[in-house]
Automatic annotation (TrEMBL):
Residues 1-20 form the signal peptide. It comes from Microterricola viridarii. Pfam families: Phosphonate-bd. This is Phosphate ABC transporter substrate-binding protein. The keyword Chloroplast does not apply. The keyword Signal applies. The lineage of its organism: Bacteria, Bacillati, Actinomycetota, Actinomycetes, Micrococcales.
């Protein structure tokens, strides 16, 4: 049950978002009447961190949606990024919190509507970060501390690209790598390494990992010399390993990647899609909602999406043959 504070503060955000959704709803006028909306909904969550407990963490969000929509909303954790897209395509999930590549794929392959994109501390894009436990090899200058974490090669600017001249040294290293669906854990780092002259098929000793926090921990524990993640995934594991910011040094940042967001399947009526998007935006605009979204995905706010921002992700996916 959400608090009365959250309920009250949501009203203004609902009104604001509803205006943004009017043009979308209007475009549906005259379209064939859709099938009746379902009596329950499934929200697909992608494990950007250790998936254990993720559904419980998201429970206040699904409870909020259930109350706002008047039908049960259940959260499920997909095994990986691509599985969430396929679940939406198969009608097994109607709402997806997805990274940018999967937002584009859900729209392109299955006609899903990209309704929201995330803001993190006011930013609508983020870089992939290159991390190491061997700064002497990768840092061309002395690491500097920012907010209790170490950076080098200009990566402390927190805006990509930075430090990419140093990534040629990754050749031959043990590297923690997420699956091909991850923009920050795979797509952008792989592109950067290929552009630096690394044969990513032959020149890397790969350690597959399933989530961003696992990549951080692989570097922290010495299982890999280099890892990739979204900025700044070190914060996810700080509560368990407080010295992670000192032992895992960020030495490069990729070019900026559009933020993740929310897609809704086309099987739902325009009215229900608008109500879902409005409710999610309202939830994110409250202090309680923002905290819960931060706990789930480090999200501070959800805002109306700009689908054209995903074009850069589509081009990157094409370059790596991920379409």
């Amino acid at each position: 049950m959400r608090t009365s504070t959250l309920r009250f503060a949501a009203v203004a955000a609902v009104a604001t978002f509803a205006l943004a959704g009017c043009s979308s709803a209007a475009s549906e006028v005259g379209a064939a009447a859709p099938a009746a909306d379902p009596t329950s909904l499934t929200l697909a969550l992608v494990p950007s961190q250790d998936q254990s407990g993720l559904v419980d963490t998201a429970a206040p969000l699904t409870d909020f949606l259930s109350e706002e929509l008047g039908i049960p909303v259940t959260g499920v954790v997909s095994k990986d990024y691509q599985a969430a897209v396929e679940a939406m395509g198969a009608g097994q999930a109607q709402i997806g919190f997805l990274p940018s590549l999967q937002l584009w794929q859900a729209s392109d392959m299955y006609g899903a509507e990209v309704v929201l994109q995330t803001e993190r501390n006011g930013n609508i894009s983020y870089p992939a970060q290159f991390m190491t436990n061997n700064p002497d090899k990768y840092c061309e200058d002395t690491p500097v501390e920012r907010d209790g974490k170490l950076f080098c090669n200009g990566a402390d600017a927190l805006v990509g690209p930075a430090g990419l001249d140093s990534i040629g040294a990754i050749k031959g290293a043990k590297v923690a790598l997420l699956g091909p669906g991850s923009p920050a854990g795979y797509i952008y780092p792989m592109l950067a390494m290929q552009e630096a002259g690394i044969n990513t098929d032959k020149d890397l000793d790969l350690l597959p990992v399933t989530a961003n926090d696992a990549s951080v921990l692989a570097v922290y524990n010495g299982d890999a010399e280099v890892g990739f993640s979204f900025w700044d995934a070190r914060d996810i594991v700080k509560k368990d390993v407080p010295d992670v910011g000192q032992k895992v040094v960020v030495f490069a940042l990729s070019e900026e990647i559009p933020n993740d967001g929310v897609a809704i399947t086309q099987d739902l009526s325009p009215e229900l899609r608008t109500k879902i998007a409005t409710s999610l935006a309202a939830f994110s605009a409250t202090p309680e909602g923002s905290k819960i979204l931060t706990d789930i995905y480090s999200i501070t706010k959800l805002a109306p999406a700009d689908p054209t921002s995903l074009d850069v992700v589509a081009r990157a996916a094409q370059a790596l043959g991920l379409q």
